[in-house]
């Protein structure tokens, strides 16, 4: 049986964003039809989706060799998800981001945290690559 690790999955960042946006549309639609959510509940759901994308995207970045390519499309996907998710929350709730509470700050914190998380993962990958190269060199010397 073949082991399929999530760390080896090469899923394009824009496909990840489309997947998360699709899930958000379903969840927001179900919430609108079944429950009686308050206006801030829509913004909370979108915030959770954006945070999920950020975490998933950072983990899946490990599998890509060309990190610059991955970063470009990851950031495009992130901001597209922010804009489209925020637009959905606005349309469904009828309140803009300022009226819904402190979600402007939440999105700002998620954005900064996302960029820092991508940087940490990229640095970890670089350190591991260097360590593997040195380990191979050390084994060849013996």
Cα(first) to Cα(last) distance is: 34 Å
Tell me the β content.
under 5%
Q: In terms of structural class, how would the helical and strand content be classed?
A: mainly alpha
Please tally the helical runs, counting DSSP H or I stretches of 4 or more residues: 4
**How many β-strand runs?**
0
The topology string of helices and strands comes to: HHHH
Rg on CA atoms, Å: 19 Å
Number of domains as seen in the coordinates = 1
Uncertain ranges: none
Tell me what you see in this structure.
- This protein has 142 residues and is mainly α.
- It has one domain.
- Helices cover 77% and strands 0% of the residues.
- It contains 4 helices and no strands.
- The model has no long low-confidence stretch (mean pLDDT 90).
Features:
142 residues; mainly alpha; 4 helices; 0% strand
Structural topology:
Blueprint: H1 13-34, H2 39-60, H3 67-93, H4 103-141
Helix pairs in contact: 1-2, 1-3, 2-3, 2-4, 3-4
Kindly summarize this structure in a few lines.
With 142 residues, the chain is mainly α. It contains 4 helices and no strands. Helices cover 77% and strands 0% of the residues.
């Amino acid at each position: 049986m073949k082991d399929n690790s999530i760390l080896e999955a090469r899923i394009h960042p824009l496909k990840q964003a489309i997947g998360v946006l699709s899930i958000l549309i379903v969840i927001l639609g179900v919430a609108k039809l079944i429950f009686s959510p308050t206006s801030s509940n829509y913004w909370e759901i979108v915030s959770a989706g954006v945070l999920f994308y950020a975490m998933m995207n950072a983990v899946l970045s490990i599998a890509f060799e060309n990190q610059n390519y991955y970063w470009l499309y990851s950031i495009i996907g992130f901001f597209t998800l922010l804009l489209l998710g925020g637009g959905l929350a606005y349309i469904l709730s009828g309140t803009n981001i300022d009226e819904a509470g402190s979600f402007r700050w939440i999105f700002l914190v998620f954005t900064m945290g996302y960029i820092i998380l991508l940087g940490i993962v990229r640095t970890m990958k670089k350190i591991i690559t260097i360590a593997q190269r040195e380990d191979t060199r050390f084994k060849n010397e013996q």
